[in-house]
Write a structure and sequence with these properties.
Structural class: alpha+beta
CATH class of the largest domain: Alpha Beta
InterPro entries: Transglutaminase-like_Cys_pept
Pfam families: Peptidase_C93 (PF06035)
Protein name: Transglutaminase-like cysteine peptidase
Distance between the termini: 72 Å
CATH architecture of the largest domain: Roll
Number of helices: 6
Length: about 230
């Protein structure tokens, strides 16, 4: 383009020079428009791939000490290392994009991997807490596996609390509560979406305490008979 301008300048052709400069300006504008489109496209792609962090939640209200679930006590007797909590670990963890990706990924993967089965059909007892390493389990087994996977990814066990609730159909149910600096969030085998505890619609009964042995009551609830098989 500038070769044409130089030729016109040598010939003294003002009109040719003007047309050449105008074409050059047009090309520059076009390139600028393309660049802007590419920048917008890149920003949109980045927005699509960036995880959407939830609004700040609240921490569930803690009540007095509660009796642990009997099947939890049995689980801890069989696997004491899985119930040992390092009190030097933080009780809550910072909720950032990396943590949110980890929580949603683990929740979704375990929900897809494990096939639901009642404890009675699986183990021959009404309620047993265990790892679903054979690919089958009920609600608490899903959550125990998620807890183990999150610990393997570097999360402190002290911030991952096994929790008993009354679910949307009025039955006992177990979920995993993740305690963060932006509130308490729930991993659940009933949904792949990680929700704040208030958004689940559940009544919260009790959960592990922060020392790994005692449990605490939650939100004024009374304990259900079992932790359900769903």
């Amino acid at each position: 383009m500038w070769h044409a301008v130089l030729q016109a300048r040598r010939a003294g052709d003002a009109g040719t020079i003007a047309r050449a400069v105008a074409r050059r300006a047009g090309h520059a504008a076009a390139f600028g428009l393309v660049g802007a489109i590419l920048m917008l496209g890149g920003a949109a792609t980045q927005a699509r791939t960036r995880p959407h962090l939830p609004e700040d939640a609240t921490a569930v209200e803690i009540g007095p000490t509660a009796k642990p679930v009997a099947a939890w006590t049995d689980f801890c007797n069989r696997m004491p290392a899985e119930c040992t909590v390092d009190l030097a670990e933080p009780a809550t963890i910072p909720l950032n994009a990396a943590l949110w990706r980890t929580l949603t990924s683990v929740n979704r993967r375990v929900n897809a991997r494990i096939k639901p089965i009642t404890d009675q059909a699986h183990w021959g007892v009404i309620d047993r807490w265990d790892y679903p390493d054979d690919g089958f389990g009920d609600c608490e087994d899903y959550q125990l596996l998620k807890r183990r996977m999150l610990v393997e990814r570097g999360l402190p066990r002290r911030a991952l609390r096994m929790t008993v609730v009354i679910d949307d159909i009025g039955e006992g149910h177990a979920v995993l509560m993740v305690r963060t600096d932006r509130g308490d969030f729930i991993l659940d085998n009933k949904t792949n979406t990680v929700l704040s505890w208030r958004s689940t619609g559940y009544a919260y009964i009790k959960r592990e305490g922060q020392d790994g042995s005692r449990w605490v009551s939650l939100d004024g609830g009374a304990s259900p008979v079992t932790t359900a098989n769903r």
